[in-house]
Amino acid sequence: MRRTAISVAASTMTLSLAACGALNAAESGGEASPAKGDDITVGLLLPETANTRYEQFDYPIFKQKVASLTRHQGKVVYANAEASADKQAEQLQDMIDDRVDVIVLDAVDAHAVAEGVRKAKDAGIPVIAYDRLAEGPIDAYVSFDNELVGEAQGRALLEALDDKAGGSARIVMVNGSPTDPNAKQFKASALSELNGKVTIAKSYDTEGWKPEQAEAHMTEAINEIGKDNIDAVYSANDGMAGGVIKALKAAGVTDLPPVTGQDAELEAVRRIVSGDQYMSVYKPYPQEAEGAAEIAVAKVQGRDIQFDALTRDKVDSPTHKGIPAQLVPVVSLTKSNIESTVVADGIYRVSEICTDAYAADCAAIGLK
User: How far, in Å, CA of 367 to CA of 273, rounded?
Assistant: First the structure.
């Protein structure tokens, strides 16, 4: 994906786009001519359940926002592909056959889903790519700023390595799924920070973002490099970071090297508190999910000025250029800012993070 307008990192606090004036763009323009009213059906296709964010945050936040935007008359039809591209293709076809008004799609396989996107387009159903940039004639794209994600992960590793950086530090990279275009961006952006400053001793792509495969990759790296010769591990997300850490501990590593992550999963936040994981990338899910809901509803209702105001960036996919996009900024999450990010934004309560097993670690960093 090529980004043609750069998002600027902002506060971690979740802000509604209405508060930023995006919704007022349509209302003040006086040009809104809704194609449909509030009685609409929005299809939501999410990719998998291994990452807890989709069931815990994305779906419920999206559903609630659609309800509020449509005076509780709009309906969300939801399906999760459980990491199967074939299953998602069937789910997408079902939504086309059922004539939903708009589809919000987080693709399992961004390339394979293109045919289904074309079928939706032929049926007159707009498709909004969510979180991952699907190929085919999509109408808009809503995601986090993926370049910033990889950059944040790479910079964090360099900060953690400190005086070890300079080419001699040996890094193992456990990247995301090769079918996920986001994973390619994370990897490339992280390498833009790491290249020339560390040695990439081993690098793996992890099919389906599976933690067990990440664990296997890490075990292989330990066997080939030696457990005492790994200075840091780039893990593209938190689920895989858990597998990486499990492999390190199984090998007898007691002083764990810095390990990155992404998604600020609860278990990862606890690992950060305890020192097992160095960092994660906090992605304000309410801002992404609510933005996608606003764009989907606006597109169906024909509010063109509002729709344009909600997509201030443009991106290119392998098949289409200049796709209207909304890119949400991200934040590097470490011990130092747990309270000001995931706690302040209401993602987790301190009591959820600081269970009995982590009480001492929380007290040590002043999290209470």
Answer: 9
The DSSP bridge partners found for residue 79 are 45
Q: Is residue 307 within 8 Å of 323, Cβ to Cβ? A: no
Question: How sure is the predictor about 34, in pLDDT bands with cuts at 50, 70 and 90?
Answer: very low
Cα dihedral value 165, 169, 170, 173, nearest 10: -10
SS3 75: strand
pLDDT of residue 305 exceeding 60: no
Own/partner contacts of 59-65, CB < 8 Å, gap of 24 or more, are: 61/285, 61/286, 61/289, 61/290, 62/104, 62/289, 62/290, 62/292, 62/293, 65/289, 65/290, 65/293, 65/294
pLDDT, tens digit, for every residue of 241-265? 999 999 999 999 999 999 999 999 9
CA dihedral (247, 251, 256, 261) in degrees, to 10, reads -10
- CA 201 from chain center: how many Å? 26
Give 302's pLDDT tier (boundaries 50, 70, 90).
confident
- Ramachandran region, residue 208 (left: φ > 0; alpha: ψ -120 to 50; beta: rest): left
187: region left, alpha or beta (phi > 0 left; psi from -120 to 50 alpha): alpha
